[in-house]
Amino acid sequence: MMQGCTQTTCPYCGVGCGVEVKQQEMVGDATHPANQGALCVKGAALAESLRMPTRLLYPKLSGQQVSWSHASEWIAEQFFQAMQQHGTDSVAMYVSGQLLTEDYYVANKLMKGYVGSANIDTNSRLCMSSAVAAHVRAFGEDVVPVSYDDLEHAELIVICGANTAWTHPVLFRRIQQVRERKPNVKLVVIDPRKTVTAEQADLHLALANDSDVALFNGLLRYAIDQQKLDDAFIEAHTQGFKALLEVVMQEKYQLPDVASRCGLSIEALSTFYRWFVTSQASMTLFCQGVNQAQNGVDKGNAIINAHLATGQIGERGAGPFSLTGQPNAMGGREVGGLANQLAVHRGFDPNSIHAVHQFWQSPRIAEKPGLKAVELFEALARGEIKVLWIIATNPVVSMPDNQAVREALADCPCVIVSDITADSDVAQYADLLLPAAGWGEKQGMVTNSERRLSRQRRFLSPPGEAKADWQAVCDVGSLLCAKLGAKDGFAFDSEAAVFREFAALSGINRDSPLKFDLSAYQTMSDEDYQNWAPTQWGGESPYRNKQFSYPDGKARFIAVEQGATGTNVENQAGLWWLNTGRQRDQWHTMTRTGHIEKLSGSEVEPTVYLNALSAQRLEVTNGEFLSLRHAERDHALLAKVAVDESLSLGQLFMSMHWAGVYAGGSQVNAAVCAEVDPISGQPAFKSSLVRASKANIATFGLYIGKNPPPVTSAYRAYQHQDKVGIWRFASEEPISLEVLSRSNSKYVTWQLPQGWIGIEIAAESLSTGLTEGKVGSILLSSPTPLNADYQALSVLIGQPVQWQALMQAAFATRVSQLVCSCLRVTDVQIEQAIAKQGVSNLVQLQSQLKCGTNCGSCVPQLKQFFN
Ligand SMILES: Nc1nc2c(c(=O)[nH]1)N[C@H]1C(S)=C(S)[C@@H](COP(=O)(O)OP(=O)(O)OC[C@H]3O[C@@H](n4cnc5c(=O)[nH]c(N)nc54)[C@H](O)[C@@H]3O)O[C@H]1N2
Ligand SMILES: Nc1nc2c(c(=O)[nH]1)N[C@H]1C(S)=C(S)[C@@H](COP(=O)(O)OP(=O)(O)OC[C@H]3O[C@@H](n4cnc5c(=O)[nH]c(N)nc54)[C@H](O)[C@@H]3O)O[C@H]1N2
Ligand code: SF4
Ligand SMILES: [Mo]
């Protein structure tokens, strides 16, 4: 690590927290406006994230190490040949909201200005594209009209389709702090699940899947009936109200009809409506429960409509607030890295095409939108894409119908993957694998949810030959320019130089109604770039003056209708609604967080949650397995059952994370074959119809040791611990003791009524015999679900065999769940403190067990113990 203190930005979620890296520790940056010193559990584990066991160090072509110059030349030649032989649209890039702005800018320039195709799309298609489209329709530009500080002024905070306590924890903590200071501020959560976020709300609306448009149209109707519209605002600053009025005056948007469509009580729904229309300042925060739907764009516009009609926008503490998922999803949108945008908030109209082309002075320019992510992989499957470069995303896990994505990649003649690890699932499909410099080793700019640009700064040297993504792209860009006989458009000598050019390009918006314009920074010195302090474009509220981004300055109402979309399980005999999302302690496909012990305990294996009645109907109980498959696909996945009353009947929930070495066989997107929103192309990850059936498991197993278990099985999950790993397995075939006789190690075994136990005697103590031999690994196997205390068992490794402790841990009566990851406090410890030590509130609990006193991400869960 370099000397002194580096101020940088967290590489996970779109809150965009500042991080201070000191010699020995990483802490929240108290001067950063996004977090004022706070970090969540993932941010607090950033130092551990750097100790990644499987970094990719050198470029590898067909598995063989090659030099960077060879690799770059190879890519440029592949691009050039495909462009010549199959046309420019046969080349594509699939990039990521986790790239830095500079990486994104040069990738976009390469594709749209030099290849001459807009076939560059990003994982933000899976994440933010519905919100982008809703913004563009309503405001004329993709602008988030509020700031985090607005939360301090809101009277009502609505969280719709987001589990903010887990996914944007530092922002949620801020909301809770506001409510502690101002108890009149109300929180409403709209989510079909009773999430940890919903548990904290004054009102939770557990709506039916994808019924959000009905709910918000109903709000408008209520505002009309109660004469709570802001007529002056509608008149002066909007267009299109009449068409919307016609929609919401239909009978189906009356309160009782909406309540029935959404599956809510009239009382709960009218309480929300009353709070909204009487509040002086309401904010509606939304995320994937809104965006990832077949009607995701309409949902976004339904929310925006409600704010426009009541004049709750542009004022302090009021407005719709699309939360960005990834650290630089917003920066990618600014650059224009979505296939349906050209650059800097411009689309494919003739003026924009001309202006961008003029600025780049490039040999070509893309003149039409390219393929959106799902279309891109479909074109790949049809063989239309000959060369695909994937950077900083793991689509074989994260795309819907990921088996089809795998097959398409396997058939593509030329796949290039840039990643930080060779262990990511997509790396297995690379013809050429490029080692990328990761967080802390590269630098550049990121923009968070509130349009604030912050710097990620370098404080480590990249390992091996790992290289920053922008440099890898520029190297190829320069070589391609030479092949095209064009002037080198990629001769940047630093990130700062890339950023200045990007800032200058955004100057084409100066004389337009668009708000996005960074041209003030086009001549910024290297030093100013290096010393950049977090800065918002558009200021606190870009629409404070009520001048929206359409040429006439007016916002547009969109007359959205609640369609038949949504997973109406009752009408689909034998099918179940599979809802998917995130866990508190993991990041996406686990490549960066799966190897961190502290983060591995909150969901230890692929788990499918369902309520007791659903479980009864499927004839499963806790610890058994469900086999899930999409209604129209053959491949099935196995996940462990956990009964969870936060879900409604017929609804299953699984996290999106399980992948790679952790549980490659249980990837949820094998069963999620989502429809896409027709406007944004964003997949409806939250509403799949699946077949679910009890898996007939003959052997349930747990293995604790330093190396993988000597057992093969259809289901296998790995939980990383620093000293010994934990593997859980399940097999439809019985696994008998004999498997151990095939292993090279010496095992001592016991057959018990509950199953059998095998203890491997560590090689170094073999000669001493069982009584003094040390435990090398432990294997438990049982015909019924195991209830083993893996933490207690791990402690026995390396110790002389302790029979009683072993039995107690192997067949525990109750297995504890980790609640506080930082201080390793479990639910059992908390319950004991409450029952036996008279702890009766959060403060007492925190002083007794210290849980929730480090990052605070578990505080919402701790509060549940006192509800
Ligand atoms: N811990 C953690 N935090 C993260 C990430 C991570 O991987 N791990 N990833 C980041 C990224 S990229 C993103 S995009 C964000 C996502 O952040 P969120 O959107 O907050 O998280 P999700 O869990 O995907 O889904 C949110 C909720 O939508 C609900 N939902 C499902 N269907 C509907 C519906 O029809 N209507 C409504 N109103 N709600 C519905 C689900 O029940 C779920 O609770 O998180 C970011 N933060
Ligand atoms: N079922 C279901 N599926 C979903 C979702 C859902 O809610 N449900 N959510 C969707 C959403 S919102 C999102 S954002 C996506 C996320 O899905 P992905 O983007 O596929 O997930 P990540 O694991 O973040 O992938 C990032 C990859 O980049 C690598 N990497 C990390 N840093 C760098 C770097 O600096 N350079 C390079 N070149 N590589 C790097 C990592 O090792 C990893 O392989 O998943 C989507 N898929
Ligand atoms: S809330 Fe957590 S994950 Fe998100 S930026 Fe802040 S520290 Fe990082
Ligand atoms: Mo996302």
Automatic annotation (TrEMBL):
PANTHER family, A to Z: NADPH-FE(3+) OXIDOREDUCTASE SUBUNIT ALPHA, RESPIRATORY NITRATE REDUCTASE
Chain coiled-coil ranges: none
Name of the protein in its database record: Nitrite reductase
Family: Belongs to the prokaryotic molybdopterin-containing oxidoreductase family. NasA/NapA/NarB subfamily.
InterPro entries cross-referenced by the UniProt entry: Asp_de-COase-like_dom_sf (IPR009010), BFD-like_2Fe2S-bd_dom (IPR007419), BFD-like_2Fe2S-bd_dom_sf (IPR041854), CT_Nitrate-R-NapA-like (IPR041957), MoPterin_dinucl-bd_dom (IPR006657), Mopterin_OxRdtase (IPR006656), Mopterin_OxRdtase_4Fe-4S_dom (IPR006963), MopterinOxRdtase_cofactor_BS (IPR027467)
Gene Ontology terms: cellular component: membrane; oxidoreductase complex
GO molecular function, one term: molybdopterin cofactor binding
Cofactors demanded by this protein: Mo-bis(molybdopterin guanine dinucleotide); [4Fe-4S] cluster
Keyword terms, alphabetized: 4Fe-4S, Iron, Iron-sulfur, Metal-binding, Molybdenum, Nitrate assimilation, Oxidoreductase
Alphabetical list of Pfam families matching this protein: Fer2_BFD, Molybdop_Fe4S4, Molybdopterin, Molydop_binding
Chain ranges of the 4Fe-4S Mo/W bis-MGD-type domain: 3-52
Superkingdom field: Bacteria
